[in-house]
Amino acid sequence: MPLISTGDITHGARTGATGVGAFNVVQIEHAQAIAGGAEAAGLPVILQVSENTARYHGSLEPIGLASLAVARAAGVPVAVHLDHAVSAGLVREAVQLGFTSVMFDASALPYADNVAATREITAYCHDHGVWVEAELGEIGGKDGAHAPGVRTDPDEARAFVEATAVDALAVAVGSSHAMLTRDAVLDFALISRLRDAVGVPLVLHGSSGVGDAGLAAAIGAGMTKVNISTHLNKLFTRAVRAYLDTHTEAADPRAYLGPARDAVAAEVARLLGVLARPGR
User: Fold this and answer.
1) Going by DSSP bridges, is the β-strand pair 202-204/168-171 parallel, antiparallel, or unpaired?
2) Nearest by Cα to 23 from 208, 173, 168, 215
3) From the CB of residue 251, how many other CB atoms can be counted at a distance below 10 Å?
């Protein structure tokens, strides 16, 4: 299947008042699991590669090209997205590799500098047909700029989107990155106010900390793109640990990575169902 744009997937979800899952790739097994889960669910999905993951692999190219290959081979629409890039150079590399979207994160900068940097990235990406997500209002749980308890102001969000021309906006509404428990309390009224204030899809970061009911309610309130990473990594690690605990002499990584991949695929399929049918 030809590579699809993140913008096309997200637009379709927003038009249908549903959500779309965006899951982070750490290694090729994650990409395969996410695409396999989407095929099992019969639903589109977004593969995300973060700047941290690119650094882990030495550069973006190895894991980026692998993710693009997995996406093109999938039997359902799969997009490939650069997540949480703070480097303009990495954004340009992703565009040249064939990523259909990027998330540029200049939220650590003062507001005016965030606007200026994001506007420049957006202009570059739009010149190359690439969709842009940005962030305003820090998401709790990250070091530095991302302070717990921060909430995005709807008026500032509207002004930011107008000033930068971004295609989607990540907002702070009560979730936190890297949560190990699914008990975050979201501000659904704020989500609705943000939906009414801006004319672009809203993105929920830190969704690993949100339970199924909260995810469904967030979609109902106006959220579109839902980013999940830590939750899947927990399942992946749990499956590897369970295998090695019972196969102490195991030496072939395929023996324990395979079950981990299967566990993630099953959860991706389940979560996509939750996001695609929030009111049912």
Assistant:
1) parallel
2) 208
3) 7
Coil, helix or strand for 202? strand
CA distance readout (Å), 245 to 180, 242, 248, 251? 22, 5, 6, 13
CB-based contacts of 215: which residues, under 8 Å, 6+ apart?
19, 207, 226, 271, 274, 275, 278
Q: What per-residue confidence (pLDDT) applies to 47?
A: 98
CA 170 to chain centre: 10
Return d(Cα 224, Cα 221) in angstroms, integer: 9
In a 3-state reduction of DSSP, which class is residue 143?
Answer: coil
List the one residue out of 157, 69, 64, 76 whose CA is nearest residue 102: 64
Q: Which residues of the chain have a pLDDT value below 50?
A: 139-146, 280
Which amino acid belongs to residue 51? E
Nearest-CA neighbor of 31 among 81, 58, 66, 1? Answer: 66
Over residues 143-180, the pLDDT tens digits come to 333 455 678 889 999 999 999 999 999 998 876 555 55
Tell me which residue of 207, 182, 228, 169 sits closest to 46, measured CA to CA: 228
C-alpha distances in Å from residue 64, one per residue of 9, 25, 78, 224: 19, 9, 14, 24
* pLDDT recorded at residue 134: 95
**Residues noted as catalytic:** 83
pLDDT at 41: 97
pTM above 0.90, yes or no: yes
Helix (H, G, I), strand (E, B) or coil at 135: strand
